[in-house]
Amino acid sequence: MSNKIADNMNDRLTKRMSRNIYIGGTMFSILLLVGLTLDTVRQTPKRENRADLTHEVAKGKQVWEKNNCVGCHTILGEGAYYAPELGNVFIRRGNSDKEAFKSYFAGWMAAQPLNEAGRRKMPQFNLNEDEINNLAEFLIWTSKIDTNNWPPNVEG
User: Fold this and answer.
1) What is the distance between the terminal CA atoms of the chain, rounded to a whole angstrom?
2) Contact 86, 139 (CB under 8 A)
3) Which of 47, 63, 82 is the C-terminal boundary of a domain?
4) pTM, whole model, 2 decimals?
5) Which residues lie across from 79 on neighbouring strands?
């Protein structure tokens, strides 16, 4: 009886039909990929803030990478989930006031590691004043990227 069922299936699904399903699925996937790529290319200029990209922001990104901040923190949802999201830290801790944020950030970095019970410890990186300022500029710039409301709340 099982051979009869297998024979009926073989009669219904021919090699030609299998090939057409494979080719059709492949073409659909390619068209979907091309469509999503074109949409991304079209949307990106509206969401980025390339006009505000400065030398200090680029230097701040270098500080971010040199000290492996992404090893603990996320930025725009990318990175480790050990420490807070920093893509919106300017809004969260600086209240969108550039000077207030820079002052807060410099104090925060100087105070590390905090010795509070139950709190994860951020290491002391011993950054100089320029590195702290550049890193703050990078975080301020990052907060101005249109992330489509990510993270979902201000506390990240």
Assistant:
1) 61
2) yes
3) 47
4) 0.75
5) 74
